[in-house]
Design a protein that fits this description.
By secondary structure, the protein is mainly alpha-helical. It has helices at 21-36, 61-84, 95-111, 116-121, 130-146, 150-175, 197-217, 221-241, 244-261, 263-267, 270-292, 305-312, 316-329, 340-347, 350-356, 368-397, 405-424, 431-446, 458-489, 495-507, 512-531, 536-544, 546-556, 561-577, 583-597, 602-614, 618-631, 633-640; strands at 47-48, 51-52, 91-92, 450-451. A two-stranded antiparallel ribbon has the order 1-2. Strands 3-4 form a two-stranded antiparallel ribbon. α3 runs antiparallel to α5 (130-146), α16 (368-397) packs antiparallel against α17 (405-424) and α20 (495-507) runs antiparallel to α21 (512-531).
Length: 651
């Protein structure tokens, strides 16, 4: 494909006066993606009349990213059909090179990933792997294609705001204690259709800024009033989330609008503007640096500023210091798209567990920049920062100096872009939220995009049709598989549940969790049979049937420490009852693999200690148990009993 010209040109051929059905269908699908993605949930009532219905196993994040991929893939395919027919003209902006350069590097990172299967789709409950990054690039690209006039731009903004208002109204209902759905959410904080207050808050920064853009660009009083009402509703929902990072992002958006709307800013000399901006950036940099490079002591140490910072930042300081060690281990290609959890489990030390007082590890860096640095390495971060910086500068320069709708919409979009980057710098980055950054980026650069100066070969565009349709069909099977898992988890333990979960793991083999769940269904069935009066030999025979399923899960993901921990624990129990088998030796080997992947995780250490004990290696069992106790005393006491308790903790 020949590179489009960077100069503003009319067209390589005549731009059609009216678009065909394929173009209109693609634009409609794209608008549907904008509206439906934040709203869709995998929650269904237990019964529709005589028809049984079930929830998706992940009722929040996976349905959203699946809906996005299906609709955006179909939209891209329809647009390609329109281009092949000569009814649509491709447009391009230099910023798109940065986005697709980031996707290209993410592909390289996937090849060298700690877990290729995970990096293609993403970790479960996050779903921000290579496929999602491809969708982000297509979203930005389609924004440039479909926002070809002020009316087009305002229609897309209205779609963003409409969805945001509906999400915000549900958040307000939760805030006032009116919620028809049953959630396991956070008390006192609204989470709406996103299932998490922090994630919801970050998302709301986008429709809030877009509402301001509509208010600043509305041509009549009615439009302005509606836009300001929408902004107020979304602002209340932002307050109801109690999310500080989102508040910072919204305040940054408001600050940008206020400053650039101030007449004194236009009269200020460029040197003074630059000095003011540099001062603010430097101050923020000092604060962030102090937070990132201050590490907490162990739980037994006296409280200090590091512990206070970690508490105030919900553990982000401990996460970021661990992320720095993970980056040092793979500084170039990174750990692979969305593989932060695997990087964290390798690099984490006792300081994290002393702060959290538990064994959980985060799936996410709680910062777009840190997440990118760890998962895509230094080149990935440089591409991201370079792209965002270029859009920040070019977007500011594209704001018209003359008052009017064009200035209002560009100013609002630029302010939204700035606020979004601020929010995502200290927030959870999930696929269903990060996509809106690239959507706003596409809308911001759309007005300065130029028609491609060369014709794209028809075979290339036809391949785009196949790719778009393929992504739409493929991603729809992921949602089907997740609903099947949700259905299976509602079944009573037994052969039907085992068969259902195994079928779901075959339908979407990229989700390693499904294979783990399928393996555990054998154990659940054995325990249910035990309660029903099965003999010990029958129970153990059923447990032994889980071993091939666990081995399959291990082979599918060689970097998953937690599934190895679970398998080792099953083997330990089986070996205690069947010392004549090799289960004890296999338990030691599997638990050893888990500890190699997560050296300081109390769960992996406890599993290895129990494996050593059942295999007769008592000295190693005591030593490993002492290490587990030194990291997480309470958890180890609950899981290890008296093992390792009779000696001094390992330093």
């Amino acid at each position: 494909m020949t590179r489009p010209s960077s100069k503003r040109v009319a067209t390589a051929g005549p731009i059609p006066a009216t678009h065909d059905l394929a173009y209109r269908a693609g634009r409609g699908l794209f608008i549907a993606a904008i509206v439906l993605t934040p709203l869709v949930l995998g929650l269904l009532p237990a019964q529709f009349g005589a028809v049984a219905a079930y929830r998706a196993f992940d009722p929040v994040d996976l349905p959203k990213i699946a809906a996005l991929l299906v609709l955006v893939g179909a939209s891209f395919a329809a647009w390609c059909v329109s281009v092949v027919r000569g009814a649509a003209q491709p447009f391009w902006h230099r910023a798109l090179w940065g986005i697709f350069g980031l996707i290209a590097w993410a592909s390289v990172s996937t090849v060298f990933s700690a877990s290729r299967a995970l990096s293609v789709w993403g970790v479960y409950d996050s779903n921000e792997g290579l496929v999602a990054m491809f969708a982000f690039g297509v979203v930005a690209f389609l924004c440039v294609q479909y926002a070809r006039s002020m009316r087009d731009l305002q229609v897309l903004l209205a779609a963003v705001v409409s969805a945001g208002v509906l999400v915000a109204l549900y958040a307000a209902a939760q805030f006032f204690g009116v919620d028809p759905l049953q959630w396991a959410g956070e008390l006192g904080r609204a989470f709406s259709t996103f299932g998490n207050a922090d994630v919801l808050g970050t998302y709301l920064v986008f429709p809030f800024g877009c509402a301001l853009a509509l208010a600043l660009s509305a041509a009549d009083r009615r439009g302005r009033v509606l836009a300001w009402i929408a902004a107020a509703v979304i602002a209340f929902a932002l307050y109801a989330t109690g999310t500080r990072g989102a508040w910072l992002g919204a305040l940054a958006t408001i600050g940008c609008v206020a400053v650039l709307s101030w007449s004194g800013w236009a009269a200020m000399r460029p040197a003074r503007r630059a000095a003011l901006v540099a001062g603010v950036v430097a101050l923020l940099g000092v604060v962030v640096t102090a937070v990132v490079f201050t590490r907490p002591r162990s739980a037994t140490s006296s409280p200090n500023m590091a512990v206070l910072l970690s508490d105030l930042s919900n553990g982000r300081t401990a996460i970021w210091s661990t992320a720095w060690r993970a980056f040092a281990a793979r500084p170039i290609t990174g750990w692979g798209p969305d593989a932060f959890e695997r990087a964290f489990q390798f690099a984490v030390r006792a300081d994290w567990f002393s702060v959290t007082q538990g064994i959980e590890v985060p799936h996410n860096a709680h910062s777009l920049l840190v997440q990118t640095l760890v998962t895509l390495g230094l080149p990935g971060l440089l591409i991201l920062v370079g792209t965002l910086g270029y859009v920040w500068v070019s977007g500011y320069r594209s704001i018209p100096t003359k008052s009017g709708p064009a200035r209002g919409v560009q100013l609002g979009l630029w302010a939204t872009f700035v606020g979004a980057v601020v929010a995502l710098s200290v927030a959870v980055t999930l696929g269903a939220v990060t996509v809106w950054l690239w959507l706003v980026l596409g809308l911001l650069v759309a007005s300065s995009a130029t028609a491609a100066s060369v014709r794209v070969p028809k075979p290339v565009v036809a391949a785009g049709v196949v790719l778009g349709v393929g992504v739409a069909i493929w991603s729809s099977t992921w949602l089907v598989a997740d609903v099947q898992v949700g259905y299976g988890m509602n079944l009573a333990p037994g052969p039907e549940q085992i068969a259902t979960l195994a079928a779901a793991s075959r339908l979407n083999p990229l989700v390693i969790n499904y294979r783990w769940i399928a393996a555990e269904s054998y154990v659940s069935s054995a325990l249910a049979a035990q309660k029903a009066g099965a003999t010990p030999s029958q129970v153990d025979s059923m447990i032994a049937q889980s071993f091939p399923a666990y081995e399959d899960a291990l082979a599918a993901d060689t970097t998953n420490a937690l599934v190895r921990t679970a398998y080792a624990n099953v083997l330990v129990g089986y070996a205690a009852r069947h010392p004549e088998t090799n289960a004890a030796q296999r338990a030691v080997a599997v638990a050893g693999e888990a500890v190699a992947l997560a050296p300081y995780n109390p769960a992996t250490l406890a599993a290895l200690a129990r494996a050593y004990r059942v295999s007769g290696q008592l000295a190693k069992a005591e030593e490993t148990a002492r290490l587990a106790r030194s990291i997480a005393p309470e958890y180890s006491s609950q899981t290890l009993g008296t093992l390792g308790q009779g000696a001094q903790p390992t330093p």
